[in-house]
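2024-03-11 09:14:02 INFO worker-7 job=invfold-0412 stage=load source=structure_tokens
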């Protein structure tokens, strides 16, 4: 049997942090940036720019072709949307031209530099 005296402890450990209320936590930098992008309308403009660039470079047609060939190979009734998403997602991300990524990144950086601190 172990006896402890009030106010003393044989184990030194930090106090247990209070459970944080998820409604009262500070937003992350990523969340703040996302909110600013949405509030300003810049997120929609960036999405539209991305759509335009992907169509211009043939990316959209390439992804559509991959989906069609996969569906033809497996049979139309044997393919689900999830199957297509799992097939296309890694290929689609890898196929986005570096120039498109660089343009979007530059636009995001410009937006961030224009934000008041």
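2024-03-11 09:14:09 INFO worker-7 stage=emit residues=117
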């Amino acid at each position: 049997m172990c006896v402890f005296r009030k106010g003393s402890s044989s184990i030194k450990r930090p106090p247990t942090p209070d459970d944080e209320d998820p409604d009262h936590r500070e937003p992350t930098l990523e969340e703040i940036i996302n909110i600013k992008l949405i509030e300003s309308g810049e997120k929609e403009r960036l999405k539209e720019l991305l759509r335009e660039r992907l169509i211009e470079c043939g990316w959209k047609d390439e992804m559509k072709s991959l989906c069609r060939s996969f569906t033809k190979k497996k049979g139309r009734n044997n393919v689900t949307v999830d199957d297509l998403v799992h097939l296309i997602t890694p290929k689609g991300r890898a196929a986005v031209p570096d120039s498109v990524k660089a343009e979007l990144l530059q636009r995001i950086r410009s937006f961030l530099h224009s934000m008041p601190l």
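2024-03-11 09:14:09 INFO worker-7 stage=report msg="The mean pLDDT is 87."
2024-03-11 09:14:10 INFO worker-7 job finished
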